[in-house]
Each structure stands twice: as C-alpha cells, then as structure tokens.
Write a structure and sequence with these properties.
This is Secreted protein. The chain has 2 helices and no strands. It is an all-alpha fold and about 80 residues long. The radius of gyration is 19 Å and the shape is elongated.
Length: about 80
C-alpha cells in the first residue's frame, strides 16, 4: 500500500482554504445583517453615522449567503457524483 503524499497535502490545503472561505463569508453575512439593528432607546449616541446603510448590509448578507450555499452545493455535488 502506498500513499500519494502530494495528493494528500493538496487535498488538505484545498479543504483548509475552502473552510476559511466559507467561515469568512458567513462572518461577512453576519456583519452585513448587523447593519439592520437599531441603537437601543435611551442608549449612548455618539452622533456617528452608521458605516453601512441597512439595505446595503442586507444585500451583502444575501450575496455572502448565496455564495456559501453554492460552495456547499458544489461540494455535495462532488461527493455524490
């Protein structure tokens, strides 16, 4: 029995890169959704404008979530075929 170490290392690198990409996309989606939150009533207001408008944040979240869904679907396609 022989192990193809080159292929094993390549598979490990690709899986680590895809994992970091999916986690990053989910994190960006959560940051985009956080733009839709409202400041607490009676809370401290420093007068700063929010960095992203709620509609833009929702669009970022939707695009990131769609990208994650496509990556997962492609992975499942590769496993099942």
């Amino acid at each position: 029995m022989s192990i193809d170490w080159g292929s094993l290392v390549l598979a490990a690198i690709v899986s680590a890169a895809v994992t970091m990409g999916v986690v990053s996309l989910v994190a960006f989606a959560l940051v985009g959704l956080s733009a839709r939150t409202h400041p607490p009533i009676g809370g401290r207001d420093d007068g700063a404008t929010p960095p992203v408008r709620p509609a833009v944040g929702a669009a970022i979240a939707a695009v990131c979530t769609l990208a994650v869904a496509l990556i997962v679907a492609y992975g499942l396609f590769l496993v099942l075929t």
